[in-house]
Amino acid sequence: MPGVTAEPRAHAGESARLAAAARGDEDAFRKLTDPHRGALHLHCYRMLGSIHDADDALQETLLRAWRSLDRFEPRSPLAAWLHAIATNVCLTMLGRRKRREATWNGELLHLEPYPDRLLDELPDSSPGPEARYAPRESVELAFVTAVQLLPPRQRAALILRDVLGWTARETAEVLGGSTASVNSALQRARSSLERARRLGAPAHASTGAERDRALLRRFMEAWDAVDVDGIVSLLARDAMMAMPPEPFYVRGAAALGGFFASVPLGGRLDRIRLVPTAANRQPALAAYAWDDEAGGHLAYGVMVFSLADEAVAGIVGFADATLFERFGLPSGLEG
Questions:
Q1: Half-sphere exposure (CA, 13 Å, Cβ side) for 224?
Q2: Phi and psi torsions of 269, nearest 5°
Q3: What class is the 209-334 domain?
Q4: pLDDT digits over 198-219, tens only?
């Protein structure tokens, strides 16, 4: 079984907890698995594209691990065993989903953002030597979106091989096939991924954290002033916007200007307050819409930005107030 990180074989303390957990000690099992929960949750998010679905997958993974702990080989890394279980849990969940062709300019994916605050809580780790993607790139919306367009088995092969850096043999053990079949699935996945990335959100090409923050400040200032022309001036000419899971897709700075001038609260941008946050290692803004009855601004949605060449290249909007708790944001703002 492979190692997801540079994880040593079970040390004395872990061996004792393994033995206790195998005897039915739930507290020992929690202590054994808690250090891996964050990485497992992120793995499920990459597979499923939804933070809420990742929650369910993580719980099912831990339940299956608890029930099958007697089959764990202590000489193997625990993280790898848990990732193998999580992969198959996600494949089962994907098998239950209605199969459909999903594209950004047609029926959009049910995609959700992943708060940076959760990524910041992960322990430092390195993927295996065969990984092709850096950790930052593999959590960006452009990558996660494109991965969702792959068939489940190809998706798993690509994430295990190119993100976690597992070998073909190790991946075949998890997926239940030959190394030749895994290599074939991986090649198809890599080819399809490049085509899919051209359909989705643009990659985020930061020119530096301070410049990114300055660009977002100018966007917020123009928004507060209901200066649509000012917003348009910050957009790349071919900037795009999508709002999954709605079938909404707009490309072009002028078209986006028309959207902002008429759609959010009828173009009353001054009735929507923006608060900086971060998701998928990209800059983001949380939007609070004025509510007359509440007498304040209530959680409305999150916009995740792709920046390139000091311009806004893409915006993916998520009109889901339930995300705010995951971002550590209040559900409303006074005044």
A1: 9
A2: -65, -25
A3: alpha beta
A4: 766 688 988 888 999 999 999 9
Q: What is the pLDDT of residues 237-259, one digit of tens each?
A: 999 999 888 878 899 999 999 99
- Three-class SS state of 114: coil
Q: 12-197 maps to which CATH number?
A: 1.10.1740.10
pTM of the entire predicted model: 0.91
CA 292 to chain centre: 34
Helix, strand, coil shares of the chain, percent, nearest 5, are: 50, 15, 35
Q: Give ranges for CATH 3.10.450.50 in the chain.
A: 209-334
Task: Cis check for the bond before 151: say yes or no (omega within 30 of 0).
Answer: no
262-310 pLDDT tens trace: 999 999 999 999 999 999 999 999 999 999 999 999 999 999 999 999 9
**Tokens encoding 6:** 């540079």
Q: How many CB atoms lie within 10 A of CB 39?
A: 19
> Is the pLDDT reported for residue 71 higher than 50?
yes
